[in-house]
UniProtKB/TrEMBL annotation:
Protein name: Alpha-ketoglutarate-dependent dioxygenase AlkB
Coiled coil: none
A Pfam family reported for this protein in Swiss-Prot or TrEMBL: 2OG-FeII_Oxy_2
Alphabetized UniProt keyword annotations: Dioxygenase, Oxidoreductase
Region forming the signal peptide: none
UniProt KW Zinc-finger keyword: no
Length: 208
């Protein structure tokens, strides 16, 4: 067996690992909103993806849309501040984010919302995460993307061009400042998505 192969087997045995957050790059969107992006923050995420897909108690939801009740086009799970996250590496991720953004955010990330996009037909429509304090205060929502690449779209509420950010396996994007109030985001359906995607959204207390 070659040294190289031994090396790669060793990496796999190590499981998922998070890189340094020093590589985050900020894009100022305007109106007080920004995003930070770090492609490949999590390495070795295949096993984590499989674990989450199998072990998280995914819920299918239905929502009232005008006079009809429709299926929410993705599966959901929510972990509150007191809940055990479904993998230790997600605890590690939440801690790393909380410490990296401590000064700027002034409070830790506490909750984790998870979405499971079964294939390219699953999506999330244009919205801001506006339930709770985020309706009137700046906040941050940090998203770890796993599995099939999908685009996250952002558009200003007052009208203007849409910003498209492709998110791949292990990528991190943080929406910050006024982003939830002054911009909207969406993950549109995709004819190209090959396979499922899981997103993990870390939020602060009292924000949904
Ligand atoms: O899947 C994503 O990356 C975004 C999910 C989202 O916007 C939400 O759950 O509020
Ligand atoms: Fe959202």
């Amino acid at each position: 067996m070659s040294v190289h192969l031994q090396g790669s087997l060793f990496d796999q045995a190590d499981g998922p690992s998070l890189g340094p957050l020093a590589g985050l790059r900020r894009t100022v969107l305007g109106d007080g909103a920004w995003t930070d992006l770090l492609p490949g923050w999590l390495g070795g995420g295949d096993e984590l993806f499989a674990e989450l897909a199998a072990d998280v108690p995914w819920r299918a939801e239905r929502r009232q849309m005008y006079d009809r009740t429709v299926d929410v086009p993705r599966l959901l799970a929510f972990y509150g501040a007191q809940d055990q996250l479904p993998s230790p590496v997600l605890d590690e991720a939440r801690e790393a984010l909380s410490s990296h953004y401590a000064d700027e955010l002034g409070e830790p990330f506490v909750t984790a919302g998870l979405c499971y996009y079964r294939d390219g037909r699953d999506s999330v429509a244009w919205h801001g995460d506006l339930h709770g304090r985020s309706s009137h205060e700046d906040t941050m929502v940090a998203i770890l993307s796993l599995g099939a690449p999908r685009d996250l779209l952002l558009r200003p509420c007052r009208g203007g061009d849409t910003v498209r950010t492709p998110l791949g396996h292990g990528d991190l994007i943080v929406m910050g400042g006024s982003c939830q109030r002054t911009w909207q985001h969406a993950v549109p359906k995709s004819a190209h998505a090959r396979g499922p995607r899981i997103s993990v959204q870390f939020r602060t207390r009292g924000v949904r």
